[in-house]
Write a structure and sequence with these properties.
By secondary structure, the protein is mostly helical. It has one domain: MFS general substrate transporter like domains (Growth Hormone, Chain: A). The chain is 71% helix and 1% strand. It is built from 18 helices and two strands. Strands 1-2 form a two-stranded antiparallel ribbon. Helix 7 packs parallel to helix 8 and helix 17 runs antiparallel to helix 18. It is globular and about 60 Å long. The N terminus and C terminus are likely disordered.
């Protein structure tokens, strides 16, 4: 028996809406925040270790949020709540005083907002609406993070700081994030069945039905789950270390003037994020045509290979800033996007929310604690060289873990299918 979609497939409108909601909810706050770090250092006298510690503390204290909430509630409703929390955190960052514990508290609010409105709900919605074109649709969605991340420092943070000061700039940014609300509330739909449609807008037979949802226990007993989590944790952690410390590295390399440093960081981030959009498009198309595993391995290797270029950037050799930004951005853009694609392929779309509810917090631990580790290594040395070498090694380990993944984690021949008693993903 076949179920046919209506003639006008709504899925691409979902992807366009996700472009904006993902870009606003993640691209602007996550990539724009490091622009303010040296202002915290200069205004409040905080050490760099304290400035970069708020994010990892928050990530650790919110590890339980994903597994408890993400597979139980509507993704688009989670987006609305999450964006509100992220907006409140930025307003808090802009109105707080010099108490570092208050600063860390607002990071906790930010982290819950990120989990509710960030990658997981967008990945679940796109995976429900697409199957054959999942790579392209996920790439289009992740373009939002790239585009909005690109403008976050150069066209939002820097002009706002120049006009109003860094604290008012943070408050204004918080209100900008609330543009997610009307898009998520009136345009987004969790599943194609809500509109009488099917994935990709094509006929679906009973044999094409998604596999039953796997339990958390099944995932945790799977070698593939641990390889994907370790691989993504190491690679995402390496990327997070670069993003969080890039401005400090530039400062140490000789770009000491504040105006020059602000402009250089804004330009570098702009080129990284623009290049990341190209990475998402190219790798998204390749992921629909070739083995996702090998596309992912190539991406992770590229991320690792570009890290040493950052240490070559000096006022005498500024070209390395842009060479690094373009190559690193290309790999970074595809890196984030390929994780849910691989998880859906390995574990099935109905298990995606459960899998990512564990993988994303684990990746966030790497994304936040690796930069803190870099701060500690740098504090005990005279340069960023040893710290960035450590980041390179971790990125390489991530690529090796993905290389060891089998074609599929679960097959009818090896692991019996079991219906989960929990609500299906995204419900």
């Amino acid at each position: 028996m076949e179920t046919r979609a209506s003639s006008s497939f709504y899925g691409w409108w979902i992807s366009i809406a996700a472009f904006f909601t993902f870009g606003l909810a993640v691209g602007i706050p996550y990539y724009g925040m490091p622009f303010y770090y040296d202002y915290y250092e200069k205004t409040f006298g905080w050490a760099r270790t304290d400035i970069t510690l708020g994010f990892p503390i928050a990530a650790t204290l919110t590890l339980w949020v994903g597994p408890v909430f993400m597979h139980r509630f509507s993704p688009r409703k989670l987006m609305i709540v999450g964006t509100g929390l992220t907006a409140l955190s930025f307003i808090g960052f802009g109105t707080m005083g010099s108490n570092v514990y208050v600063y860390w508290g607002y990071w906790l609010l930010y982290m819950v907002g990120y989990l509710f409105s960030g990658p997981i709900p967008h990945q679940v919605i796109i995976s429900q609406w697409f199957k054959k074109n999942r790579g392209k649709a996920m790439a289009a969605t992740y373009l939002g993070v790239g585009i909005f991340g690109a403008i976050s420092a150069k066209f939002i943070a820097k002009p706002l700081v120049t006009a109003f000061g860094f604290q008012t700039a943070l408050v204004i940014t918080g209100f900008i994030l609330l543009l997610v609300w009307p898009i998520a509330g009136f345009i987004m739909k969790d599943k194609p069945s809500e509109m009488g449609q099917t994935p990709d807008g094509e006929p679906v037979t009973a044999s094409d039905a998604p596999a039953p949802s796997r339990t958390f226990g099944e995932l945790l007993r799977s070698r593939s789950f641990w390889l994907l989590m370790i691989g993504s944790l190491c690679s995402i952690g390496s990327i997070g270390s670069i993003n969080q410390h890039m401005k400090f590295v530039f400062k140490e390399q000789g770009f000491a003037d504040q105006a020059t440093l602000d402009a250089l960081f804004a330009d570098a981030l702009f080129y990284i994020m623009i290049s990341s959009t190209a990475g998402r498009i190219v790798m998204g198309v390749l992921a629909d045509k070739f083995s996702k595993k090998w596309v992912m391995v190539a991406t992770y290797m590229l991320v690792a290979a570009t890290i040493p270029l950052l240490l070559l950037a000096t006022p005498e050799n500024p070209m390395y800033v842009y060479l690094f930004a373009i190559l690193f951005g290309f790999g970074m853009g595809a890196d984030y996007m390929l994780i849910p694609l691989m998880a859906a392929e390995q574990f099935g779309v109905n298990t995606l929310a459960r899998a990512m509810a564990i993988i994303l917090p684990a990746d966030t631990i790497g994304q936040t604690w690796f930069p803190a580790l870099v701060s500690q290594i740098r504090a005990g040395d005279t340069s960023y060289g040893p710290a960035l070498n450590t980041v390179f090694v971790l990125a390489f380990i991530g690529a090796v873990a993905i290389l060891l993944l089998p074609k599929h984690a679960f097959t009818d021949a090896t692991v019996p299918l079991q219906e989960s008693k929990s609500a299906p993903a995204g419900r």
